[in-house]
């Protein structure tokens, strides 16, 4: 049998789902006050039909009389308590006492667990049978209780004796004694970096820096460069033409900019407007002279007298005639060289490249001195030009080019490397772990590889080693060798100096696992 306790917010579908999941044949369904399922008889009809389909014996429990009435009208048995529901299902019969006394309810029943407080379904909460307890008819006590108590007392005594024996064994076994004379050890090489820079005014062992200085190289280069820019100073051919109107119907206005040309196609345009009246057919034809200028510059537009005979088509149709009584002259061609910005930029770049090559040659030929020179740090200073580009651009040079001079001061770093070993050793001592005791005079520093050179510094990797006496921490040593094999413990102790190790009992191959059972005597 199962007793199901529903929550307020459980829906009808929750109860039906539990019917379909249960394997019990008897179910008591407990509804809390205000349950959604108890709001209509249709819900109870569905539950009754589902129980009948599943072959379940269903009883409903509710403290609300109206809910029980709705359930009863739907064909369900409804009760006020779980006990009533169980008796109705025939699951809690009364037992008649043997001595003829009053009826005593049997202890055989069903213990059920309600649903969890979170509201999640506890599927198939099966009733657990509670078996009847046999009692001693003479004393009313449980049969065999005294025997159980007796055996419990005997077990407690035996356990106590065993605990005492274990404690005594723990106090006596095992133990170890170590005598240690700390020694020194050679540290493996460690790398420190010493940096030389012009920003360091003096040696600083703690920071690991030392001064560097700039060696200076004054440089100067002069060269001549081509000017590729041009200025067109060519002129237009100019002169005068005569326009004649032979139109007897209307006067004609010839606009400024009207195009006229020679038979060979050399074109000109008028530079002023002129008005020609109608010709009356008698006497001289109306005519006027206007100035013209060639469309293109150069001497090709120069032409002789009476060579300009054509005018734009519209004016020809209006019967305007054109000619030039005099030659058209003064057309010329003249191109002048100019310095452009590109010319000056290319010249400066070329001078810089030549200065860099000269600087590199001087670096390789610099004689050795007391300081070590590092060519990789070399750099050119700012260039100073004999004529700034802003002043040079647009100038008309003599001939086809211009001359330019660039000067600068190049620099490279040099360092007194004889200080490296001393600075590296002092830096190592100042920055080492304060707990590490370094033997006096045992520090040895050597160069650990090629330096790293930048335009503003030189970094030296230095390899440093020393004789040190490591600090001895008794608690740490005991923890380090606890539980180790005896031979492994001796190897560990050898790192700290000369050690004598003994264990008791002496046949044990391992150290005590408890560091408290190890006695450490440090001389």
Structure description:
With 523 residues, the protein is an alpha+beta fold. The chain folds into 4 domains: 2-130, 3-Layer(aba) Sandwich (Rossmann fold); 172-183 and 470-522, no CATH class; 190-224 and 336-428; 234-333, Elongation Factor Tu (Ef-tu), domain 3 (Beta Barrel). Helices cover 25% and strands 33% of the residues. It contains 11 helices and 33 strands. The chain has a 6-stranded antiparallel beta sheet with strand order 21-17-18-20-15-22. A hairpin with a 2-residue loop joins strand 29 and strand 30. The longest helix is centred in the N-terminal third of the chain and has 28 residues, at 145-172. Residues 94-144 have low confidence and may be disordered.
Tally of DSSP helical segments? 11
User: What form results from the Cα inertia axes?
Assistant: flat
Distance between the termini: 79 Å
CATH topology label of the largest domain: Rossmann fold
Supply the CATH class of the largest domain. Answer: Alpha Beta
What integer is the average pLDDT? 84
| Main sheet record | 6 strands, antiparallel
How many domain regions?
Answer: 4
* CATH architecture field of the largest domain: 3-Layer(aba) Sandwich
- Say how many strands there are: 33
Q: Looking across the biggest beta sheet, what order are the strands in?
A: 21-17-18-20-15-22
Rg over CA atoms: 60 Å
Strand content: 25-35%
Poorly predicted runs of 5 or more residues: 94-144
The helix fraction, in percent, is 10-25%
Structural class: alpha+beta
